[in-house]
Write a structure and sequence with these properties.
It contains 13 helices and 10 strands. By secondary structure, it is of the alpha/beta class. α6 packs parallel to α8 (133-142). The strands form 2 sheets. An 8-stranded parallel β-sheet has the order 1-2-5-6-7-8-9-10. Strands 3-4 form a two-stranded antiparallel sheet. Helix content is 42%, strand content 16%. It has a single domain, classed as Metal-dependent hydrolases (TIM Barrel).
Amino acid sequence: MSWKIIDTHAQLWTEEVVSNLPQEIHSKYEEVFKRKLSYSLDELFMEMEDVGIDRIVIVGIDAETTFNYKIPNEEVLKAMRRGEGKVIGFMGIDPRKKESAVREIEKLHRDGFRGIKLVPHLHEVKPNSEEMYPIYEKAQELGIPILFHTGTQFHVGSRLKYCRPIYLDDVAVDFPNLKIIMAHFGYPWYEEALSIVRRHDNVYFNIAGWRPKYIPKKVIRLMDSILVDKALFGTDYPLIKHEIAVKELLDMNLKEETYNRLFWENASELLELG
């Protein structure tokens, strides 16, 4: 059986973008994943075609004021236009830019961006800090989701303490209509993360950045049962290749409903794709 698939999490690590990133940060990921992590959009679109990926979320990142790390939203917008409907843009927003960050959200939403990407360890702000709340208020007003990095990461010089899933419990309580996605299921705090997903109607998680065969069995079991309507397929491309991610998931022989929900329906509903 063939499936419609949305990848809810990919990096814009084209060679042009990577050449302008702090190299000590990007190189650490290449060291961990043991291969070159840059690509061309043509390569991405070809892989999507080969594997059957219908749409892909590409994220911008703005941590300019802390780490001088930026994947420009302008480059994401170019990818959206090149993709002719295949690319869904999530804007990178730097909360330390305060009022200008909120204005940027409004502008980029008008440009067609469908979500926001936040990286608390690079912003060096805990997600439940009131400093973040103007961003949440604007996202809730516009009805767009926020994708939070949660759990472990390999950015040199950053601190893991900002990535605890528990902080998003406060955010979900204070903003019950804000769509929240926990990237990477909060590992190693995945039980903490999934308990928050379970208790809040507005919180979801994705499995990006992990080869499925290495995902903890408890995560898979909940994804195939009581959290079937909260799980989102993602790769963190190019960290994980689409062909590998899809094959390993299909090899698990999960329920048909799980594949429908994981690959397409949950993300389609969340992003209001129609």
